[in-house]
Amino acid sequence: MQFMASKQPENCLLGSESDSQRTLYPYVTGTSVVALKYKDGILMAADMGGSYGSTLRYKNVERMKPVGKHSLLGASGEISDFQEILRYLDDLILYDNMWDDGNSLGPKEVHNYLTRVMYNRRNKFNPLWNSLVLGGVKKGEKYLGTVSMIGVNFEDNHVATGFGNHLHGQFFVKSGMRT
């Protein structure tokens, strides 16, 4: 009987120890993402600028992407790391669709997955330099959550990343919106 070693996919979270390509210092970054729940769904907003240091280098960078059928992901931080996260999510959605069972991942499941990814990378001293906002609606239930680059996460009625995180709380308190 012959045994064959299983080959890990290239985008595997556990990657080999010899992987040396990682972000040490963010170069091209995006700023704030702001999101809130409202009566009919989720509202999420971000600019499309990619900054190189303090210079607006790229003016058409998409930092919000749909994930599956029910979710939308927004990111601030390093753009190349966001592209890596999107590759992980593409693999996850493809794997979920292969089951062909009529069920699909909702925003809560995707948020849980992203939390594990970010925490795993932090523990390997190879973090992805992003703060993520994930929102969506599945079966009429609205969901809005955020994950930091070290895996800290929470769910709320309104969230923001970057500098917007420092401003949005006061805005909602002064406008009378409750958390």
UniProtKB/TrEMBL annotation:
Its main location: nucleus. GO terms for cellular component: nucleus; proteasome core complex. It is found in: Nucleus. It comes from Hibiscus syriacus. InterPro entries: Ntn_hydrolases_N, Proteasome_alpha, Proteasome_bsu_CS, Proteasome_sua/b. Keywords: Cytoplasm, Nucleus, Proteasome. It comes from the Eukaryota. The keyword Nucleus applies. This is Proteasome subunit beta type-4. Component of the 20S core complex of the 26S proteasome. The 26S proteasome is composed of a core protease (CP), known as the 20S proteasome, capped at one or both ends by the 19S regulatory particle (RP/PA700). The 20S proteasome core is composed of 28 subunits that are arranged in four stacked rings, resulting in a barrel-shaped structure. The two end rings are each formed by seven alpha subunits, and the two central rings are each formed by seven beta subunits. The catalytic chamber with the active sites is on the inside of the barrel. GO terms for biological process: proteolysis involved in protein catabolic process.
